Amino acid sequence: MSPRPPHAHPHLVWDWNGTLLHDVDAVLAATNASFAEFGFDPITLETYRELYVVPVPKFYERLMGRMPTDAEWLVMDETFHRHYWSAADAVGLAAGALELLRDWEGAGATQSLLSLAPHERLVPLVRTLGIERHFLRVDGRTGPSHTTKAGHLVRHLAALESAGVTADRCVLIGDALDDALAAAHVGARAVLYTGGSHSRRSLESAGVPVVDTLAEAVAVAGEMAG
């Protein structure tokens, strides 16, 4: 049997941190390092997943009980990124991610990568992990770090128009409520994965499918092709 034509599949837009990249431990350690700068106690992964929200200053507000000042935010943001990127080389892909990327491409379907990680940091890491060739496009964040994904997704999809990618046939696979909000903003769909930044309870509030493995995420996305 020959593979289904590309139009029979949705286009997958993959999130990076906490989704394809299994970096939740590095993220938690960097978050606690940023909190230590101001004498706050470390938090657990369970607390992180219950309270995490984008944009990140809102997350810090939930943890601190108040919004960080501009000066505090600058220190915490710099500390987080310094600790996170010092550990990034030791972080690997989520279980089964490489095989899923290969299989999706092998079925004649398309996919791309969109992250709020800094673009200049993201691209070299994707290349080092040997997966860049599986994507039509790889985009990281440009501009300030206290942002959401919606505007970046608008630009990402605009850049993919020439490849025939349209929002109505896209499924965004991510690990955060912000991923679902971004997808809704452009008229795409979303599947949320519990292996990253949010608890299942938090993710289920988005009203989109929630799964525990990336294999389930891809299967659900495939069913959405309709």
Overview of the structural elements:
It is globular and about 55 Å long. A 6-stranded parallel sheet has the order 3-2-1-4-5-6, sandwiched between helices. Helices cover 46% and strands 12% of the residues. By secondary structure, the protein is an alpha/beta fold. It has 10 helices and 6 strands, in the order βαααααβαβαβαβαβα. Helix 1 packs across helix 4 and helix 7 crosses helix 8.
Write the layout of secondary structure elements.
Elements: E1 11-14, H1 24-36, H2 45-51, H3 56-64, H4 70-87, H5 97-106, E2 111-118, H6 119-128, E3 138-141, H7 150-160, E4 170-174, H8 177-186, E5 189-193, H9 200-204, E6 210-211, H10 214-223
Parallel strand pairs: 1-2, 1-4, 2-3, 4-5, 5-6
Count of DSSP-assigned helices:
10
Across the major sheet, the strand order is: 3-2-1-4-5-6
Rg on CA atoms, Å: 17 Å
- Report the count of strand segments: 6
Distance N terminus to C terminus? Answer: 20 Å
Largest sheet: 6 strands, parallel
Structural class: alpha/beta
Shape: globular
Uncertain segments are 1-6
The overall pLDDT average reads: 93
What share of the residues lie within helices? Answer: 40-55%
Secondary-structure element string: EHHHHHEHEHEHEHEH
**Proportion of residues in β-strands:** 5-15%
Short overview:
By secondary structure, this protein is α/β, with parallel strands linked by helices.
Defining traits:
226 residues; alpha/beta
